[in-house]
Amino acid sequence: MEEVVMASSSSLDSGIGSWELRSGSERTRYRSSATPPRSLLSLPRRNLLLSSSSSNNNNQILFWSLDRPQVEVRSFPAEPIGPLVSDSDGAYVIGGGASGSIYLWEVASGKLLNKWHAHYRSLSCLTLSNDESLLISGSEDGCVRVWSLMMMFDDIGKEAARNLYRYNFSEHTLRVTDVASGHGLCNSIVVSSSEDRTCKVWSLSEGRSLRTITFPCIIDAIAIDPGEHAFYAGGRDGKIYIAALSAECNPNSSYGEFIIGSLSDQSKAVTCLTFSTDGVTLLSGSEDGLVRVWDTKSQHVIRLLKHGKGPVNNVIIVRQPIRSTQVLANTPVPISRKRMHLAIPPPLEKYVNSTDGEVGNKAVTMFQSPWDDLWDKKYCSSYVMSNQIRDHQQSGSSGGAEMELERLRQECKRSAKMVQQWKKLYNDLQNVCANEFLGEVQLGES
């Protein structure tokens, strides 16, 4: 896998830059994009780069092919979109709006599958849990909220629930600047930072705060060590603080309790952080227009990447597989992939389209056969699947089309059955937890 560094700026002239991580050589420069913080992401399996852009009251979401500097698709959302996040397959994109609403789009069709009011003020950051079942959002209202994505598509469950969110963490007193999730699936930890100069560690399984760490300055960026022994916090004083996740507090620390060290290179405010896949290389963007590549073992900068005059507000790692032309030539492309034109998706819709009926707004998981192209998508909505079936029906009754049609029908049946199984499991787990809680209460009363 080849790792490429992508960095963006809020300056329209600087745009988005890309460099090879190992050599530091610059690659493509994507212009005409003024990117807000937390709004740059890649859809590697689709070979796409995605960002929101805001300039002169012109709010857009832009798609680029990774190998072309020109914008491929422009979308015009209903309001300015700040933070963006996607699932690991690049099938769905979730955006946070200035009004406090969250939007969920499907990339293949461009359909806005869901929208809900999440916070009282604009969204500042979004992230997904390790198993991608939970969405964690941070806002300028100082709250961190946890959302079950399955719940957001369960109309009956939403009507019965007291709140749409699973947890509401409201201990920060000022704007939330960043959130990061650990690797324990739905039992992982979440770290949030705020302009109140604190970072808080939360438990997703218990729904409570585990630790509060006070820093010498405001923290704007967080990156969790892959081993989850510590997390790195980028400060407005130009330092990257190292805070312990598992160690006991150290009252004698020169920085404060739980802060075990720092990285410093006399930079301006640190605005964004991300780890490489090796778990040792840390990348930081700052207001001085530079991207610094750190070796966390030696705690030294090993490379400087110059982005431009404007401050760097997004840094991501794009992992591109090295696929030879021979492999591509011998890999058959499924008919559905050709028809869907996955490399260049349609624009993202502005509103939830209610004219397609109940079926068109449901997310479905498709199960791949072992002989399918591994680069084909295994997640899509029932709207896309219905269009695939309709295309095959209109294409005639050839043997290959009939086989593909039958495969899609079977996938629809398996998907519906799996959704029911997951709902039953979810309800069973809720009942077990409720019974255990009642048992503990009765035991305590006795």
Can you give a write-up of this model?
This protein is of the alpha+beta class. It folds into two domains: 319 residues, YVTN repeat-like/Quinoprotein amine dehydrogenase (Methylamine Dehydrogenase, Chain H, 7 Propeller); 97 residues, no CATH class. Helix content is 18%, strand content 39%. The protein contains six helices and 30 strands. The protein has a four-stranded antiparallel beta sheet, with no helix packed on it. The protein has a four-stranded antiparallel beta sheet with strand order 4-5-6-7, with no helix packed on it. A four-stranded antiparallel beta sheet has the order 8-9-10-11, with no helix packed on it. Strand 10 and strand 11 form a beta hairpin. The termini are far apart. Keywords: Repeat, WD repeat. One of its GO terms (cellular component) is nuclear pre-replicative complex. This is Protein ROOT INITIATION DEFECTIVE 3 isoform X1.
Summarize the structure.
The chain is an alpha+beta fold and 446 residues long.
CATH topology of the largest domain: Methylamine Dehydrogenase, Chain H
**Number of structural domains:** 2
Would you tell me the structural class of the helices and strands? alpha+beta
How much of the sequence is in beta strands?
35-45%
Report the helical percentage: 10-25%
- First-to-last CA distance: 60 Å
Radius of gyration: 23 Å
How many DSSP H or I helices?
6
Let me know the average pLDDT. Answer: 81
CATH architecture of the largest domain: 7 Propeller
Summarize the main sheet: 4 strands, antiparallel
Order of strands across the widest beta sheet?
Answer: 3-2-1-28
Q: What would you call the shape?
A: globular
WD repeats: 116-149, 169-212, 263-304
GO biological process, one term: DNA-templated DNA replication
Protein name: Protein ROOT INITIATION DEFECTIVE 3 isoform X1
InterPro entries: WD40/YVTN_repeat-like_dom_sf, WD40_PAC1, WD40_repeat_CS, WD40_repeat_dom_sf, WD40_rpt, WDR18/Ipi3/RID3
